């Protein structure tokens, strides 16, 4: 693809390259273009069409809601649940469960932890230490970080799966729904013992989390769950294709159901004169935070008063702090560690730009939350969230220059920033968790009936 075609607008006009001109003492000063007249989104006629998929985009796998005959009892095999969660998995389980129970269904949520749990009417929590004194956590509340198969974390997942497989006193069950790899062995055994269908939601894969170097302990559990499930839910089309190509999943049983966000009360902008670029998420290799920092080093040459804020925790923290010092931008970067939901909302109210430069990102709820808050957003082209929105900048995850150029563009032009923010907010909130819950019920009914969906 030529440079001109890469920089062509929707209207077909070639626009100047956003590459950064090298200048200064060892730093690159971004080139700032004149302010664009409008954001490149669909025209008025496009908004009237019921199917507004972007040209060349594949249609998502169909999801049939079916005809509900009675409330379902869903046994959900999860891992995390708010208020204690490290990423989008816990948020998804909470939000989808809340909407499923509002539809009249009942959920028994299985987790290795003893709480506390943010209560949801219609959700009962079961955990291995439930017959012991409350407050004791049975298993370590951390993700696997590279230990061997005899590590405490690996032993904990084995124990959790054994408990799930042998669980009694569940009453009448309609479907077993497992999230990611943590409980697939136990969920499969439980489904077989009860004679009920298994549904699996894949939020990310071990190939993604390990950047192509999967650990077989996790890969085996993922493969087992995908093969055993009557239906598999992927959170993006990109992830669906990976399940088919790398895990041999039957395309006929893999559905795409995107994540969503819930609208919150809008906060007034916190000193809009300040220019802040925000990242919120885990500090893991797959998130590409090093690209965020390298782009920051280029942006400060053109925008000396900008502040870069990194909110989150993870194994990459020491390396990223060292990289910040090596780039000479320690006075322009703030590491906040883990933040609460309330603190995140305040950060979004004060942010000028949100960036998510993930190497791989099966979805990217954090980017959708930023859009819902009206913050113009830059994501990598490999992010699943890019499939459902046209009101964001998409950049190759490795292209530091382009990330920096887009940041400068948004920081320099308030009109562009406001237009992208408002359009992004509309796109982020046009469908929410209620729609996702109804789509999920459709998948349950397909699995229960053992039927193929209508074309």
Order of helices and strands: HEEHEHEEHEHEHHEHEEHEHEHEHEEHHH
CATH class of the largest domain: Alpha Beta
Question: Percent helix among the residues?
Answer: 25-40%
**What is the straight-line distance between the termini?**
35 Å
Number of strand elements: 15
Question: Would you kindly provide a brief summary of this structure?
Answer:
With 455 residues, the protein is α/β, with parallel strands linked by helices.
Q: What brief labels describe this structure?
A:
about 450 residues; alpha/beta; Rossmann fold; seven-stranded parallel β-sheet; 15 strands; about 35% helix; disordered N terminus; disordered C terminus
Explain the overall architecture.
With 455 residues, the chain is α/β, with parallel strands linked by helices. The chain folds into two domains: 73-140 and 153-259 and 433-449, Glycogen Phosphorylase B (Rossmann fold, 3-Layer(aba) Sandwich), CATH 3.40.50.2000; 262-429, Rossmann fold, CATH 3.40.50.2000. It contains 15 helices and 15 strands. The chain has a seven-stranded parallel β-sheet with strand order 5-4-3-6-7-8-9, with helices on both faces. β10, α9 (289-299) and β11 form a beta-alpha-beta unit. α3 packs across α15 (433-449), α4 (152-166) runs parallel beside α5 (184-194) and α9 (289-299) crosses α13 (400-412). The longest helix is centred in the last third of the chain and has 17 residues, at 433-449. It is globular and about 65 Å long. It starts with a helix and ends in a 6-residue tail after the last helix. The model is unreliable at 1-29, 31-68, 135-149 and 451-455 (pLDDT under 50).
């Amino acid at each position: 693809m030529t440079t001109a075609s890469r920089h062509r607008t929707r209207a077909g006009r070639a626009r100047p390259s956003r590459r950064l001109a090298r200048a200064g003492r060892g730093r690159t000063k971004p080139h700032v273009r004149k302010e664009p007249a409008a954001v490149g989104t669909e025209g008025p006629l496009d908004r009237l069409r019921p199917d507004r998929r972007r040209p060349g985009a594949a249609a998502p796998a169909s999801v049939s809601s079916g005809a509900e005959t009675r409330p379902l009892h869903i046994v959900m095999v999860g891992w995390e649940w708010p208020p204690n969660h490290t990423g989008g998995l816990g948020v998804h389980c909470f939000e989808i469960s809340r909407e499923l129970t509002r539809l009249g269904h009942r959920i028994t949520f299985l987790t290795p932890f003893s709480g506390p749990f943010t209560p949801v009417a219609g959700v009962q929590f079961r955990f291995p230490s439930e017959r012991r004194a409350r407050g004791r956590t049975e298993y370590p509340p951390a993700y696997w970080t590279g230990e061997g198969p005899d590590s405490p974390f690996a032993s904990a997942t084995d124990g959790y799966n054994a408990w799930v497989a042998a669980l009694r006193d569940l009453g009448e069950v309609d479907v077993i729904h497992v999230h990611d790899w943590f409980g697939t062995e136990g969920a499969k055994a439980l489904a077989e013992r009860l004679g009920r269908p298994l549904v699996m939601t894949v939020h990310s894969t071990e190939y993604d989390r390990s950047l192509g170097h999967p650990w077989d302990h996790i890969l085996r559990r993922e493969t087992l769950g995908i093969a055993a499930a009557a239906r598999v839910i992927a959170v993006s089309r990109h992830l669906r294709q990976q399940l088919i190509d790398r895990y041999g999943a039957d395309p006929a049983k893999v559905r795409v159901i995107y994540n969503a966000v819930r609208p919150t009360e809008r906060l007034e902008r916190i000193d809009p004169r300040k220019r802040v670029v925000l990242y919120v998420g885990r500090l893991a290799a797959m998130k590409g935070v090093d690209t965020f920092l390298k782009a920051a080093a280029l942006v400060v040459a053109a925008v000396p008063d900008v502040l870069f804020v990194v909110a989150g925790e993870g194994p990459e923290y020491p390396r990223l702090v060292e990289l910040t010092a090596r780039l000479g931008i320690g006075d322009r970067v703030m590491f906040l560690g883990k933040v609460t939901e309330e603190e995140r909302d305040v950060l979004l109210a004060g942010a000028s730009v949100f960036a998510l430069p993930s190497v791989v990102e099966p979805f990217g709820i954090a980017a959708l939350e930023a859009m819902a808050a009206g913050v113009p957003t830059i994501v990598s082209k490999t992010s699943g969230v890019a499939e459902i929105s046209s009101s964001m900048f998409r950049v190759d995850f490795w292209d530091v220059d382009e990330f920096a150029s887009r940041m400068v563009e948004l920081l320099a032009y308030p009109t562009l920033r406001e237009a992208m923010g408002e359009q992004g907010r509309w796109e982020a909130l046009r469908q929410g968790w209620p729609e996702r819950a109804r789509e999920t019920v459709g998948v349950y009914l397909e699995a229960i009936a053992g039927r193929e969906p209508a074309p």
